[in-house]
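Quick question, first post here. What does this chain look like in 3D?
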Amino acid sequence: MSESLNNKSFQPAGLSGEQPIDAVDFQAPGNDQQRVRFRFTAFHALLLVLSLLCLSFILFITLAKSIQVVAVTPNLNKPSDYLLQPAELNINTALKLPLGNRVMVLPGEHAVTLNAQGYQAVEQTVNVTSERHQQFEIVMTRLPGNLNIIVPDGVVATISIDGQQVGDTSELVSGIQAGRRELTVDADLYRPFTQSLIIEGKGQTQEVVATLQPAWAEYAFDSTPSDADISIDGVVKGRTPATIKVEEGTRSLQISAEKFKPFVQELSVVAQQTVSVPAIELVPADGVIEFNSEPIGAAIMLNDEFKGITPLSIAVKPNQAHAVKLYKAGYRLQQTTLQLQPAEIQVEQVKLAADLINVKISVSPADATLYIDGVNRGRGSQTVALNSLPHAVSVRKPGYVTQNNDIVPTRASQQVLSFNLLTEEEHYWAQIPPTYTNRLGHKMKLFRQLGKVKLGSSRKEDGRRANEVVYQAELTKPFYVALHETTNKQFRNFKATHNAGNYKGKSLDANKSPALNVTWQQAAQYCNWLSEQEGLDPFYQTVSGYVSGVNPNANGYRLLTEVEWSWLARNTNDGLLTYPWGNSKTVPKGKKVANLADQKASSIITFTLDGYDDGYKGPAPVGRFPANHRGVFDLDGNAAEWVNDWYSAKGSSELGGSGIAKDPLGPDNGEFHVVRGASWARGHLPQLRLAYRDYGAKGAHDIGFRVARYAGLNKSKTVVKN
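> Answer (accepted):
Ran it through. Tokens below.
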């Protein structure tokens, strides 16, 4: 083809002839030529906007979701069901496309507003999800409604909705929530009207005619005096005479007038009945006496009847005389007569006068101080005026024991009080009796005035033994001693199996005979047991039931010390006794001084006392022979006696050192214990001497014991080895 083009000359159409084509100068294309080719105009901009809008619309249509918002409201007849409610809908978003009853919106949260006449406007947010079609139901609430209740003319009744009072029939009741409600209309003198109704709400006013049924009866009242208030259930309804409508049921009637007692009665009212109540005679009102006294607390007797204590108000019958007495302990009786008018109030202010009685108080020593009810009244004896109340009287002086006494002064007899103060020591000993009998019948005697004791015997004394060393001791601690030796019966309270046995066919076990064949340990343990019975501090210290020491400060029972036994048996104000009957070697003829080995015992005893007959072959019941010069029985016969001390040939002579031993308890230890005194089995004259000392470890047919104890209160315990 190119060859064809080259071979043929080109000639534009429309040119005729064979005119030559002139050459022109070459010019390269420039900017002007380009602007001529494309110019961006308003048209182009419009096209661009339309294109973007189309693109946005296509994108919105692609992403938007179809939603339907429906307004519903509860069915008033069936609140669990809901009804569609036409409402004006507004979705507060710029990108939305209404399509009939649906709207296209983008996913997300959108504020929705619903408005309908008679309903509360609703503003709510809906959450549009990715689902294509969605529906939202929004509940709309009816506006409250109003009620106009029609009742009979002149009647004002209270209105209650669902049991809650909301107003009365004098005005429109507004603000009632829509729905089924229970209406109650209640008026005085009428039966309540009730009705169930539906409140339409939406601001509408509904009208209800309340048919009230009468519920009263007419009562005619009169009284004497007239013009008295008539009250029904506490509300004044009129004044007598009057006819009053009274509501049916049980009612409380009160007729009252000034200065009269109110008349009260219960009425059982039946509707639509007419009742005429008999005229009521009112009783004059009581007067009131208000009693006050100085001091308060006075007893009031009205017409000899106790009414109470002041301050007190008492109602009394008017126009009558009343006898009044006021009394308070320690004050004089006040009497008066009072008469009051009906309803009168009278105040009685009574000042009681003290009932003073002279009391003579004797005080010794004369400079001791007298206190009455804790108040210092001076020194010495005096006469004081006291009222007839209990008083605490006290007398005090340093170094003396305070004495207290309570007194209630009376005019029945002369009032005298005596106080004789004791020093502390005197008071101490005043609490300790000179004699007493304990629970087991031991008769105890107190010895206080003691002193020096002579022990041992002169070498010139016939029958003297080497263990009768002469020495002195001193007794300073008062002590009690049993007047009789401990009997078999008493010892069996401690050891029920005790049997004193017999000696050569002679029984030693009679209840009232001295307890024989008792070891020293058993005698000491009996003392401790007896202390426990009496609540005293045990004297003997024991280890595993064995007596191993003593507490010299204890006031419990113990055995006599050897020095105490000697003082009781031998020492007299005039010197020393040699034998129980005196210093002669022979017993005074015909005199029974003690139970010794006499002629009756010669069949069983080797040595007997010539010419002596005490009436007993063996041990005698305790206390059958005369007491010695100290008032103690059988100390020099019947049974020899265990004493507290360990045995030593020198006794307690070495315990005082260079001085005199005071209240010695004997040596610290030993093998045997001392036995003192003659017995029913001893008739050898040297053994009947009061200086004679024996010893042993085991019980014997003629050895018994008697109890003693230090006099005094419980003190600190100090153990001394024995």
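The CA atoms of residues 87 and 649 lie 139 Å apart.
The domain at 62-139 is CATH 2.60.40 (Immunoglobulin-like).
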